Amino acid sequence: MKCAFHAAQAFSGTSTIDLIPLKKELAQILHPISMYPRDVEKKRKIDFLKKASEYAQNYHSSIQQVYVRYVDAEQQVLIANSEGKYIEDTRVRSRFVIQSIAAEDNKLQAGFYAPGSSKGFEFLEHLDLQHYAHEASRIAVTMLNASPCPSGKFPVIIDNEFGGVLFHEACGHGLEASAVAKNNSVFANRIGEKVASDIVTYIDDGTLPNEWGSINIDDEGEHSRKNILIENGILKGYLIDKLNGRRMDAESTGSSRRESYRFAPTSRMTNTYIAPGKSTREDIISNTENGIYAKYMGGGQVDPATGDYNFAIMEAYLVKDGKLGKPVRGATLIGNGPTTIKHIDMIGNNLSHGAGMCGASSGSIPVNVGQPMLRVSEITVGGSEGGN
């Protein structure tokens, strides 16, 4: 009421405002829920977490600590605007998080996994808890005895699933209209230009059934859709919200998102991924003579205006003569996103997605990042061992 009062005081004299009657729409339910989390007793959820903790703890004697968490959320959305739009939606998401800590001879290493879905409790019921628990512990145990990673420029194989976080950060943000409309992106004003390798097709698709970053409608009431951003290396489009769309003289792509009503919506990603190619995992590894294999990516930093990035690798291996070698620790990828996507020379056929949270001006929102296994012909690798 206070905001409405102050807005009314901004008008002087008499003004005529044409009122457009609200017309209610129905949001198409693309991501059905079978077990709403609110209907599941807490003990049932706790029992699952205890079981996951036991799986992780019992994996190896060096596992000293296990952290498990289950998060579920139900968000009610109502959008009414001056264009006459009136639409409601309910968003339900569930996520399982596990971290294992291995310790030996004063050394500590962590392994982490955090799958999520736009589902209710059925997500946890059908989740392979043992697999994810064992993976978190396996990563920690494996890296405990890893050798220091060499530094230098190498071909780098990046595995599928959460490997896509590198391109989400280094390229995806540069394709959002919030950056493009202000010319704060290296991709601004380049529609139709070649910006990536011929084998790269980059997609954002909020309609993927029950995926973590999926939505029925965006936060301006536009229906979710599949947006092809880069096709066979050619820049085809951007992720556009209404405000920046007016600045760009372009239509919304159903990409306006926000954490809650406390934030103004803006262009954001949903499920963003590199489309699968034709190579097998075995092809990519066997055709790499001397490189680094990044099995699981860690955190990183990126400058969205330039695409310059710095990413840690949680689990990495040397590749020698077309075969996987010993595990290495302390590996960091240093490069530039627009340059890196031009140097992708092999893409696998094993597309998979990984869940994450993305923070920006409109808050923290769930997003999927994804890709098949792929190879970049050369990336600078910062390691814990000098030289190569």
From TrEMBL:
Residues 37-144 form the Metalloprotease TldD/E central domain. Residues 151-383 form the Metalloprotease TldD/E C-terminal domain. Pfam families: PmbA_TldD_2nd, PmbA_TldD_3rd. Signal peptide: none annotated. Belongs to the peptidase U62 family. This is TldD protein. It comes from Paenibacillus macquariensis.
